[in-house]
Amino acid sequence: MPPVSNRSNAIMDLADDQRFALMKFRRSVSDCLQPGQGDPYLLRWLKARNFDAVAAEKMLRESLQWRAKWDVDRLLTHWEPPLALKQFFPSGICGTDKDGVPIILVPFSGLDIWGLLHSVSKTDFIRMTAMTLEKYLQEAAENLKKAGSPSCAPTLIAVMDMENFSIKPYTWRPAGEVVLSLIHMYEANYPEILKACYIINAPSIFSVAFSIVRPFLHENTVQKIHIFSSNARKWKAALMENISTDQLPAHYGGTQVGINGDTKCTHKVHQGGKVPKNMYQKLEDLKDEIEGAWTSANVKKGDKLQLQYDVAEPGSYLKWEFRTEQHDIQFAVYRCSNDGSRQAVVEPRKVNCQDKNAPEIGVITCDDAPAKYVVEFDNSHSMLRTKKVHYQIVLAPPLTSADSLVDSLASIAVN
């Protein structure tokens, strides 16, 4: 069967204004397109910018500059990852869905972010992620070629296993910086490559973590993410809607089994794991790292600690992380009116986040602005004990102007 026409199939379902945007975009970037980068490729960038041809051109040209700076086109053939990344970077392709799209499995609990960032540079960690994406997209493109559709844009399916997920490692500032850098890299340079993402075995704390990173994700990406708890019946049913059982390891409801009954098929999917300390480039104490990035305060018995933040732009977001020593504390966030009254945005509640527990983490979008927001640690219910609180609170601009923040984090990672 001859391959499907590159152009006619790509624009079949487009509205007239979208067809016009595609035509305009195609003409404006004709000088930088490579062979095989037809309408399906161009539509990735247009969809990422809501069919604004000018914005899509800017996005594409900036991505080409990024690829040149990072030498992305030569990563698979000219870059040798450090040993720690080769041995402990978790992911792998286990099969394809019914349309031939590669299925990427990521056992997230195997990502030792602390160990890896003590063994390799942030630059190499980001480079490894880019190389892995390029490898998977290359395989997706080869599948399309075999299916007689070489002109179609390759896509991927991701299955992220969040079993045993802990948010604590990501309260360490370097880890947070890398996460933001990777999100920026993905959204800026790999638009519309995701067919679907299944996040399975997600604990309740994951919803808090996802709410923190969601503002940095394009809405098109968010719509393709499906989050499931540890209820295996539900997420297995969702996977099987478009994936045959022979394309999944037995651990995930399929029939694949590796050597000696290996239900996770570790010969296909690298599990990651704890990086041994003899691979560390430097040894530091985690607590010192965390304490150095946090502020500490004593909230006296019967007293309150109130922190005020002036929000200038609607859509800004307020993010907090905190923990206490030995005892709980009541926490709330209020929005203050000009007349002095205040309304609870986060209702007051007692929080038990002592040293041995994970920090309390949350984020809100400040839709009403300009306004004053107050973060309150309330110890007035205690008449006997002073509470020590360690906290980080960040007021960040709205997503439309947050790119500069993420660029800065990416720059820190590069340097």
TrEMBL record:
Give GO cellular component annotations, separated by semicolons.
Answer: cytoplasm
What are the residue boundaries of the GOLD domain, all occurrences included?
276-395
Q: Which SUPFAM superfamilies match?
A: CRAL/TRIO domain, CRAL/TRIO N-terminal domain, Supernatant protein factor (SPF), C-terminal domain
Top-rank lineage group of the source organism: Eukaryota
Family matches, as InterPro entries = CRAL-TRIO_dom, CRAL-TRIO_dom_sf, CRAL/TRIO_N_dom, CRAL/TRIO_N_dom_sf, GOLD_dom, GOLD_dom_sf, SEC14/CRAL-TRIO_domain
Protein's recorded name: CRAL-TRIO domain-containing protein
Upper taxonomic lineage: Eukaryota, Metazoa, Ecdysozoa, Arthropoda, Hexapoda
Name the PROSITE patterns on file. Answer: CRAL_TRIO, GOLD
> What SMART domains has UniProt attached to this entry?
CRAL_TRIO_N, SEC14
List the CDD domains.
Answer: SEC14
Residue ranges occupied by any CRAL-TRIO domain in the UniProt entry: 81-260
Q: What transmembrane ranges does the database entry give? A: none
What species does this protein belong to?
Cloeon dipterum
Q: Name one Pfam family in it.
A: CRAL_TRIO
